[in-house]
Specification:
Length: 467
């Protein structure tokens, strides 16, 4: 894909993207009913406000940019998210566990561990519904979902290319599959910090619930002494675990396999509306669609009904991320243009690992973290090995400057938790939680959590690993 468009676009071309973000942030707060019924139209309007002038002013170049973004990025994104959502929604986890502090901490820990191996989206879709069910009688639940987004939907995906899209892009560009295991120490620091903070939050809200009498603890457990059990390890009886729809685990394994296939196998290209895709990518997308259909066919309807499965969350992703992907096209193109683009002051200022961590991370909080990762990966290669072909440059980069790639990788993955749009499962988890009756924080309300909790932890990570 040519990057010359990024050298031509003015900085004000990012205004529709800012408008899209503000609509997502303020629409549900200021105009909740209007937003609920018309958010798809708002998304389409912002997309049109960007697309029409782009095509009118830049002609074929503008058309090519938008088609590439939609065909090569948006459609695979939706297909992958949709397949994981469908398969995860077909797995029903029944348990008589109750939402004690330690049970919830266990859910978050297990979710964070498996996220690197089945993807943050896969882990989030598998566990968010049972997580909400074990806490159905808790009064204050929004903070739990926020920590679930932090740990399971983002930070836990840092160890392998299966965990998060930026790392998969690095794998496609020559970073060995298990190289990202080096992120285990900074990831462990962030997860340990989050877990300790979560336990403090949970104990505080449990004490508040008990003081307010908002939790019918005795009937909840059938035990008059249950009030004490919730704040400790608990002695709730019947910790039985039952999994229905387990055949979907096979489909989940197929999803992981076909993603690896598309990364390892290089086939000839096919042109779709002028956008060149490898056949391995086309095959991956088709297989993922087939998996969605198979999952719907082989999963009993009763399982999905008990799982409270609906198409609402994925439709919200479909509509809103269409607007996000289209309107962010100028911002990404300008960034890719590096020192020749209107954001050259950003790429020119990035020289040290800590700067890569924070700037790649900050942009990943609002832009798609996969191309943002690739932009700064390319910036670092150009900084150390200008003019060298990519394959030998990557090999030399990994040997001589591994700290830089660790910083870019950690920033792109960790900072996805800073906003609802930083990583796709964030939005989906929020939507599922709201469908279950949890009143989630607004766009900016969520950022109060992330700024106060995540940014200090990222400061510790910077001090320990990237200075």
């Amino acid at each position: 894909m040519e990057h010359s468009l990024g050298t031509l676009l003015p900085l004000y071309s990012v205004i529709p993207f800012v408008g899209m973000l503000l609509s997502i942030a303020l629409g549900p707060v200021l105009f909740p009913k209007l937003w609920h019924h018309h958010f798809g139209k708002v998304s389409a309007a912002w997309a049109a406000l960007l697309a029409v002038p782009l095509i009118v002013v830049y002609g074929k170049q503008g058309v090519d940019e938008l088609l590439h973004l939609l065909i090569a990025d948006y459609i695979p994104f939706i297909v992958l998210i949709g397949s994981l959502f469908t398969v995860g929604g077909g797995i029903l986890v029944r348990t008589s566990l109750k939402g004690t502090t330690w049970v919830n901490a266990g859910f978050l820990t297990i979710g964070a561990i498996v996220a690197s191996w089945m993807g943050t989206t896969g882990a989030a879709m598998l566990l968010i519904r049972p997580f909400l069910r074990v806490n159905k009688d808790r009064k204050y639940k929004a903070f739990m979902v926020v920590f679930f987004i932090f740990m399971v939907a983002n930070v836990g995906g840092a160890l392998t290319p299966l965990g998060d899209p930026p790392l998969f892009l690095g794998f496609l560009h020559g970073v060995p599959f298990f190289w990202t295991l080096r992120l285990i120490t900074p990831m462990a620091v962030v997860l340990a910090g989050l877990l300790l903070i979560y336990i403090a939050f949970d104990k505080y809200y449990l004490a508040k619930e008990q003081k307010e009498g908002g939790l019918a603890l005795a009937s909840f457990y059938g035990d008059g002494a249950a009030a004490q059990d919730l704040s400790g390890a608990g002695s709730a009886p019947g910790k039985k675990l039952e999994i229905l729809g387990a055949q979907n685990f096979i489909l989940l394994a197929v999803i992981i396999g076909v993603i690896l296939f598309s990364g390892y196998v290089k086939m000839s290209e096919v042109s779709i509306l002028g956008v060149h895709l490898g056949w391995q990518d086309v095959i991956r997308n088709l297989v993922l669609v087939v998996i969605m259909v198979i999952s719907m066919k082989i999963t009993p309807r009763a399982v999905r009904e008990e799982n409270e499965y609906s198409w609402g969350p994925i439709l919200e992703i479909l509509y809103l991320f269409f607007g996000i992907f289209v309107t962010m096209a100028p911002a990404l193109a300008i960034l890719k243009a590096g020192e020749s683009g209107a954001l050259s002051f950003i790429t020119a200022a990035v020289k040290e690992p800590a700067q890569y961590f924070w700037i790649a991370g900050a942009l990943s909080s609002f832009l798609d973290n996969a191309p943002t990762y690739l932009t700064f990966f390319s910036t670092a290669l150009g900084q150390f090995y200008p003019g060298m072909a990519e394959a030998p440059a990557v090999a030399q980069f990994l040997a001589d400057q591994p700290l830089y790639l660790l910083a870019i990788s950690a920033g792109s993955v960790f900072f996805g938790a800073v906003t609802y749009i930083g990583n796709a499962p964030n939005f989906m988890v929020r939507s599922i939680a709201e469908e279950s009756g949890v009143k989630m924080p607004s766009f900016f309300g969520y950022m109060v959590y992330s700024f106060c909790i995540l940014l200090p932890l990222f400061g510790v990570v910077t001090w320990l690993f990237f200075l």
